[in-house]
Amino acid sequence: MFSYRHGFHAGNHADVLKHVVLVQLLAHMAAKEKPFTFVDSHAGAGAYSLATGSYAAKTAEFNTGIVRLWSESRLPGALEDYLHQIRAVNPGGNLLRYPGSPQIALQMMRPQDRLRLFELHPTEAQVLQDYFHADVRRVSVRRENGFDCLKSVLPPPSRRALTLIDPSYEDKDDYARVVGMMREALARFPTGVYAVWYPEVKRRESARLPEQLQRLAGDNWLHASLTISAPPADGLGLFGSGMFIFNPPWQLDARLREAMPALKALLGSDRAATFGLQGKQR
């Protein structure tokens, strides 16, 4: 249950897609003066070292993710916005750290906005609490399962919220939990913005999840996916990922339509690399 540590995967291709989308969503939320709440159901450790000896360095998955964008110039706007947030934690110009979703949110939020973070892993939760200990007025860290506790923060007092749902999916039951969680969240707070990350792996539950989410979303959703390679012959490993957004801002589709071909070109590793972008908005 507590075996997963996101540090081993920090900055990989799935993080890149997730955070490219997240930065656009946060920018949209911050564009209006009214405060908003950012909720992260499975927050991880906040930020991650990429230096020698770190968890990330042991797998070096960031070499096929953020490293491929780091030195690029003249990128589409959404990718430049994303890199701006990564550079903020690497002020010396060298890529030494990778921010998790909570750190990116902290960088983009205003004094009136709030973070509500859930993390069940005892070590990760303690790291997260220590990381944000100086900002307890704006940031709440709870060592609890986001699947069980999301309802406790919805709807927020401001009636504006962006919720990121990104479990590890190591337990195949997580797929069903995500669907149930979204069904309950939409019943409690139907106007919130929700972003569900999922892995592309050789598992039936993974392939079915976007369709299940689409049925919940009705006529207001956006689905972005990035496949970097053909599925591994042994059936093991991550070969892509997706982000399914409920109640997406109207300009997100156009921003991603410009960015996704560049992500495919930079992160794809064989001829099977592709991307998808579908949606429906009222």
Kindly summarize this structure in a few lines.
This protein is of the alpha/beta class and 282 residues long. It is built from ten helices and ten strands. The chain has helices spanning 13-30, 55-59, 67-70, 77-87, 101-108, 122-131, 146-149, 173-188, 204-217, 252-267; strands at residues 37-40, 47-49, 97-99, 114-118, 139-142, 161-165, 193-200, 221-227, 240-246, 274-280.
Q: Which features would summarize this protein structure in a list?
A:
282 residues, 8-stranded mixed beta sheet, two-stranded antiparallel ribbon, 10 helices, 19% strand
Number of helical runs? Answer: 10
Q: Low-confidence parts lasting 5 or more residues at pLDDT below 50?
A: none
- Average pLDDT score: 94
Radius of gyration over all CA atoms, rounded: 17 Å
Global shape: globular
The number of domains: 1
Provide the succession of SSEs. Answer: HEEHHHEHEHEHEHEHEEHE
DSSP strand count: 10
Q: What structural class should be given to the helix and strand makeup?
A: alpha/beta
At the fourth level of CATH, the homologous superfamily is Vaccinia Virus protein VP39
What is the strand arrangement across the widest sheet?
5-4-1-6-7-9-8-10
Q: Helical proportion?
A: 25-40%
CATH topology: Rossmann fold
